[in-house]
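Hi R.,

As promised, here are both runs. First protein below:
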Amino acid sequence: MNRSIVLALFALAALVVACEEPKPQGASTTGGAATAPVVLDDKDIPTAADYDDQAEKDITETNYKSELDTLDKEISSQD
């Protein structure tokens, strides 16, 4: 008798679990508003060419030594 009661309880529990509605992917359990995905355009990401153009404007034959010293200090401070 005990075995049949236990089997009935397991069957009932399995039915309850099997009948649950699946939660949607990405649903927040905190109840907050969903955030929109971030969309980046290729123009938003700087490339090496962007930095080259800026360097050509900023660095001249007269100030290249001071610019190099500034870069050396920045690099050494990051270590």
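And here is the second one, sequence first, then its structure tokens:
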Amino acid sequence: MKRILISGTILTAAALACLSFRSEPQLPEISVPEGQVKELPMMNNDAFKRGEQLSFRVHYGIMDAGTATLTVTDEEKNLGGRKTFHIVGLGQSKGTFDWFFKVRDRYETYIDEKALVPWLFVRRISEGGYKCEQDYIFNHFSEKVNVGDGKVFPIEPNMQDMLSAFYQARNLDLSNAKPGQLFSLKCFVDNEIWPLQIKFIGRETVETDAGTFKCLKFRPIVQKGRVFKKEEDLNVWISDDKNHIPVKGQADILVGSIKMELQSFSGLANPVSKVN
């Protein structure tokens, strides 16, 4: 759980994903159990489209520590008889930081085009000698997730993985959000349901390498003591427009601070709230 809070919280709330090198995963066959066919709820998606790419610079303290990208690929794969968005999060450590803590991680998710729920989640991480490989096959018809090794867990409707949650959250209606208001999502992470809550803080203008943006500031509710000193040690800024792209993320942790800033963007679905 400690590693989830460091990388996973920023990934889900701020959309930080990382890089590994491997071939495209073989897509599973997702069956529809007899007698359990059901209609999945329709979710509007005005926030992103195929071809979107976001690039970030990652800092650890004053050190330029790495880069990350989030890409909605041009692919139109079918899983469970449904069209999906294929989203890939890539990142790697660089420079001096790469010498003593090499990061080569990759996250992928295949999200239902109409219901905005994941069908397949792929996680390949290598961080300073720690390695983890996960393949979660979701079946929203039977409300189960297969994590491999014969292990199958029940899930609730609209269950997300740690990457798909961010893309669904981008479609939340935030036009009338009030400071202090809470927004909630449920994710399946490391074989358990992880409730994610984010608190709206207010509106701010943020400067990055990609320009200056009008932003909405959020604070994910985190568990203090393990990684964070205080509950307010993680903050995320997203663009104040229909795209809701992550512009900046900052986390003060027990062993320093991590900061992510938007470096470039392309293929957005809507005009962006850039000031200059």
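A quick note on the second one: Confidence is low (pLDDT under 50) at residues 1-23, 223-228. Let me know what you think.

Best,
J.
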